[in-house]
TrEMBL record:
Protein name: Uncharacterized protein
Domain of life: Bacteria
Length: 109
């Protein structure tokens, strides 16, 4: 609005930003990040054995120290169905083990 002190301030949506940039701006939660980069249309798709290999790749490439330990605990609990009081490193290990187990079982069927 003219005269409100915001002349020329235009919000621009940037596409292709990094996970660090997205998180710093509050745009992307960990589960959303994992689902998006694993090609999942829904968060619940992260639990599918057919997604385990892609999810494992995403987890291995996810930047460290971006999300709070609680976000990693939530992701591990949501995806594996088991509670986790672990920090980031432990939650990553739990998720990667789940991906290996699910991926190997899925590949054998």
């Amino acid at each position: 609005m003219p005269g409100d002190g915001h002349e020329g301030n235009v919000a621009i949506q940037e596409w292709g930003t990094s996970a660090v940039e997205d998180t710093e701006r509050g745009r992307e939660e960990l589960l959303d990040y994992l689902a998006d980069r694993s090609g999942c249309a829904y968060l619940s798709d992260l639990r599918l054995p057919s997604v385990a290999d892609r999810l494992g790749q995403v987890l291995r490439g996810a930047p460290r120290g971006v999300w709070a330990p609680e976000a990693w605990q939530e992701a591990a609990s949501y995806i594996t169905g088991e509670g986790s009081g672990a920090g980031e490193a432990e939650a990553r290990d739990i998720l990667l083990a789940w991906c290996r187990d699910c991926g190997s079982r899925y590949g054998k069927h």
